[in-house]
Amino acid sequence: MIKIENLVRPNILTLQPYSSARNEFSGKEGVFLDANENPYGSLNRYPDPLQKKLKEKLSILKNIPTQNIFVGNGSDEVIDLAYRIFCNPELDKALTFTPTYGMYSVSAAINNVKLEAIPLNEDFQIEIEKVKPYLADESIKLIFICSPNNPTGNMINQKDIEYILANFNGIVIIDEAYIDFSASHSLINLIDNYNNVIISQTFSKAWGLAGIRVGLAYANEEIISFYNKIKPPYNISELNQSAAIKQLDSEIVNNTVSKNIRKITAERERLILALNQLTFVTKIYQSDANFILIEFENANEIYFNLLEKKIITRNRVSQVKNCLRITVGTQQENNQLINALKNTQ
Ligand SMILES: *Cc1c(COP(=O)(O)O)cnc(C)c1O
Hints:
By secondary structure, the protein is α/β, with parallel strands linked by helices. A hairpin with a 7-residue loop joins strand 10 and strand 11. Helix 3 runs parallel beside helix 9 and helix 4 crosses helix 5.
């Protein structure tokens, strides 16, 4: 067991957190004259700072106790707060495996923390021999592992993740933003075995609610309590909490989310078959996500050709040679993409 407190920034350990009016009295009935709210209107009250109702639904769905759940203003807040809890600016470092999601490095730069990057191997997997020297570096406090990885689309091997977890005296964040599109299961149960792991998920992708900015962190109670200690008091608005709850209910009652996931993954496989027919497509990477990384003979040319036809894809040439990352759309959108690509031949 790792002593989490030893990893936390001293000023965060001793921080006196803001105590909101709604934290001090949590009953529903009463005459609320404590928070300087307006007595009129329907969204006049501050939202529940700890999102209890949302967490109770998630707790049932994920089979995880509510005290192991943190709700963030998107997973981007989960990432940012991790830097703020664990990394002393200028002194501490973080580590990730590239190519990967850009926010780990942007958030590192904002927090004045150096992010080390180890290239993934040609199968986009972690090379454990390359990681070993970093695991011994005590200035590294955080490791980000994105699985399924963005922009490559593949899962990272569980045995390599577990090797890192078992041999690192710091925090490991496994970013599972795309896990619901994957044929493999989430590693959420690792929180039972390792007290230094954070599993990050989101409502933005498979749950279809990028507009509401709700991200999740699952971890042991001690880590979650530091998240709660430093988060902005009302980080999830009433509107966003209720939209997330509504989507969870809709999945529980009608499987709406699962049905859409199945549609998207079926379209992904159809897209792959269609793309395989194109001579200028030189490689299609296997995907466990709702996007596909595709290598072209000349990706930049394809990118601008598509853009002219108002089909916007993600140019990843700077990260992976001659590659575009293309999100799986509706059947009709995907047909438009396929036709546009055929016409560039
Ligand atoms: C899209 C994405 C997220 C989601 O971020 P939100 O802030 O929750 O919208 C997180 N991680 C990765 C790797 C992503 O691609």
